[in-house]
Amino acid sequence: MDRGNITRVWLPLGLGLYALYFVFVRGPGPRDPERWLGLALCLIGLTGVMLARYTLGRSFSIVAKATALVTTGIYSRIRNPVYVSGVIFIVGLIVIVRRPALCLILVIIIPMQIWRARREARVLEEKFGDAYRQYRDRTWF
Q1: Exposed site from 42, 59, 62, 125, fewest CB < 10 Å?
Q2: Which domain holds residue 46?
Q3: What's the CATH code of the domain at 50?
Q4: Furthest-apart CA atoms within the chain: distance in Å
C-alpha cells in the first residue's frame, strides 16, 4: 500500500467512519429502525465514495481534467459514483439526525453535482472522443 492510497482512500475512510460513529451514537433521537436505516445509507454512501476514489487512483482531481478514462470497477456501471454515493451518504445523515429541513441541502447539492458531471463529461469527451461516448452510452449518470 503506497502513501497515496493512505491519504486518498484510507485516511478519509477512517475519518468518515469516526464521524459517522459520533453522529450515530451521540446524535439526537432514539436508536430505532429509522436510525439504523440512516446508518445503512451512510455506510453504503461512504463505501461508494471510497471505492470510487480507490478505483480512480491518481486520476482523481477536484477540477475537471482528463488524465485517464477510468471504466473499471464501480465506474463500469456509474460514470459519477462519487457524486451518487455522496448524495446517498447525505440522505443517510438526514435520516439519522431527523432534521427534514436539511433536505434543502439536497436542493443545492444535486443540481451542483449534475452541473459538475456535465462539465466533466465535456472535458472527457474532448479528450477521449468516441471511447468516452461509448462508455457514456453503457453507463448510468
Answers
A1: 62
A2: 3-137
A3: 1.20.120.1630
A4: 52
